[in-house]
Amino acid sequence: MGRELTERSETLLKTLVAMHIRDGSPVGSQTLREEAGLSVSPATVRNVMSDLEERGFLHSPHTSAGRVPTAQGYRFFVDSLLQVTDEPDPSAFDSIRKELNPDRNTADLVQSASTMLSSITSQAGVVTVPKPTQQPLRQVEFLPLSGDRVLVILVINQREVQNRIIHTQRVFSDEELRAAAAQINQRYAGQALADVQERVEQELLSARNSLDNYLSATLDLAQQALAEEARPSDYLIVGESRLLEGASPEELARLRELFSTLESKRDLSHLLERCSEADGVKIFIGEEAGSQIFGDYSLITAPYGDGARSLGVLGVIGPTRMAYDRVIPIVDVTSRMLSAALGQ
């Protein structure tokens, strides 16, 4: 990045970024000088702004005499100049704590986390959905329906209940289904669904080779019960409309491209998956998110889990001029509270 910034340059850059976050307008030298409260001449401020522009921290939009921060300028601001508190303001803290009630199931908690992030930050909230295969199997039950149809009731991770209907190769009696469920629960309860699926496949092959018809039928039921159905979305996004508020016609065009990218889920899914494996809050400014579509937007994320494993990541998508000092602690505390709720 070349030579380090002087204290005066840092002060003016910090002030300019804060003004742009607050007002969203290019900042002129005279206004910046007054806002920063420095006893320097207007010419000195102009020279500093020119230097910051040459170094890639600022740029002049169109023919405006004022300047706005670049993604590089925001990155330096976040990394070197920003002061962030450990906790959000008390009202936000209380809202998050009340909403993320440990008595609620995982799906409700994840949805609430995304909604809370959007509501409190006035940006778009995003949360990845935990993969079912990461969760431990608690219990399975089979209920006979008409013909070869069987209702499967899966209890996962102490609180999740999933219902699905499977079609069996033959008709099972109530007693057979109860016995099959009891055997499956005895063999696999407490193990992660992914591990159970793998064991069932291996043991089913072995049972068929040994001509153990009873065990084969039981394992076949288990395999169908645990087969991956159409999964929910990789992640939930709430509050995209908040990004539209106050957007200029030029920004609206970029937002449409961003929404199209978010809808396809490809680029963001890969990024969020990497974030879930990292520790603590991560901040991606502009194209750091891996796509040119994010040029004018930032993504702030933090992973969440249940105390034993990482389950996903949550965060906020908003313009690069978002109030980072407020949003970062909200994302951080939401991830910690969601993890605490899931851990209970």
Describe the protein's architecture and organization:
The structure is a single chain. The protein is α+β, with helices and mostly antiparallel strands and 344 residues long. It has three domains: 7-81, Arc Repressor Mutant, subunit A, CATH 1.10.10.10; 90-131 and 233-343, GAF domain (Beta-Lactamase); 133-226, 2-Layer Sandwich (Enolase-like, domain 1), CATH 3.30.390. The protein has twelve helices and ten strands. It has a five-stranded antiparallel beta sheet, with helices on both faces. The mean pLDDT is 85.
CATH class of the largest domain: Alpha Beta
According to DSSP, the number of beta strands is: 10
Task: Tell me the count of domains.
Answer: 3
Q: Enter the CATH topology name of the largest domain.
A: Beta-Lactamase
Q: What does the largest sheet look like?
A: 5 strands, antiparallel
Give average pLDDT, whole number: 85
Structural class: alpha+beta
User: How would you spell out the order of helices and strands?
Assistant: HHHEEHHHEEEEHHHEHHEEEH
| Gap between N and C termini | 46 Å
- Gyration radius, to the nearest Å? 27 Å
Arrangement of strands in the largest sheet: 7-3-10-9-8
Question: In DSSP terms, counting alpha (H) and pi (I) runs of 4 or more, how many helices?
Answer: 12
Relative strand content? 15-25%
Write the CATH homologous superfamily of the largest domain. Answer: GAF domain
CATH architecture of the largest domain: 2-Layer Sandwich
Shape call: elongated
**Roughly how much helix do the residues carry, as a percent range?**
40-55%
Low-confidence stretches: none
Keywords: Repressor, Stress response, Transcription, Transcription regulation
InterPro entries: GAF-like_dom_sf (IPR029016), HrcA (IPR002571), HrcA_C (IPR021153), WH-like_DNA-bd_sf (IPR036388), WH_DNA-bd_sf (IPR036390), WHTH_transcript_rep_HrcA_IDD (IPR023120)
Function: Negative regulator of class I heat shock genes (grpE-dnaK-dnaJ and groELS operons). Prevents heat-shock induction of these operons.
Family: Belongs to the HrcA family.
